[in-house]
Design a protein that fits this description.
It is built from three helices and 17 strands.
Length: about 240
């Protein structure tokens, strides 16, 4: 047996076959599959057809080369996916506020959270908060609001100067030395029964007992918080002796 390789990389016995039997078989198959007559193009077809790839089957010297178009692959179109049907994300109040740096009051947030639940908008679930339980108070001791009491009922209370675009929980609107928006955040830790004050990154410095607040500072009864020209005395209700 004498092996020979044809131009199409087929090996065959040259003593037994004059030409490559694989190529010869492909030639017969291509001739049988070739259409007898081409159909006339319709009037709606003006663009030239895009010819598919061709495969050449070359024979030995003296034989004609045969080329036949490969059949087009039957590619199924992917199923069309409907619109976004993901369930709206549900997060806790603390996670949502910390993530988006919410600058409004809790009342404003509740209004924003109301409405249809099927419109794809992320909602805040108020399952971490009690219903308006008093946690403590801040009392103004100077300026024109001297003696005014601000009741703390939320675990996160914002302090600053409100306007239509920057609502806050404790509004020092009479103090023009306080910049608009949130300037400080008073937080209550219900697990350890402690209160903390922290600056909110606003333009107005925040002081606790005349020390500038740069990181969260724990508050005790009688501590004085200063923003602008306003001083507020802190009076907690929840403490080691009592809590809700």
């Amino acid at each position: 047996m004498k092996l020979k390789r044809c131009p199409n990389m087929h090996y065959y016995d040259e003593d037994k076959y004059a030409v490559c039997p694989h190529c010869a078989a492909a030639k017969k198959k291509a001739e049988a599959a070739a259409p007898k007559a081409e159909p006339e193009p319709s009037q709606a077809e003006f663009a030239e057809p895009n010819p598919g790839p061709e495969v050449n089957f070359e024979q030995k010297e003296g034989d004609e080369a045969v080329s036949a178009p490969l059949p087009a692959e039957n590619k199924e179109e992917p199923a069309k996916t409907p619109g976004n049907t993901e369930e709206p994300e549900v997060r806790s109040l603390t996670e949502a506020i910390n993530e988006v740096s919410f600058t409004g009051s809790i009342g404003e947030a509740k209004k924003m959270a109301a409405g249809n639940d099927d419109d794809g908008v992320t909602r805040i679930i108020f399952d971490e908060l009690a219903d308006n339980l008093v946690l403590g108070w801040l009392v103004a001791v100077n300026t024109e609001i001297k003696g005014k009491v601000f009741t703390i009922t939320e675990t996160r209370t914002t302090i600053g100067r409100s306007d239509l675009e920057h609502p806050v929980d404790i509004d020092l609107h009479q103090d023009r030395a306080v910049s608009r928006g949130i300037q400080a955040v008073l937080a209550y830790d219900p697990l350890n029964k402690k209160f903390f004050i922290n600056a909110a990154g606003g333009k107005t410095p925040v002081y606790a007992n005349r020390q500038m607040v740069m990181v969260p500072v724990e508050l005790s009864a009688g501590d004085i918080i200063m923003l602008g020209e306003t001083s507020l005395v802190f009076a907690p209700l929840c403490c080691d002796k009592f809590s809700w």
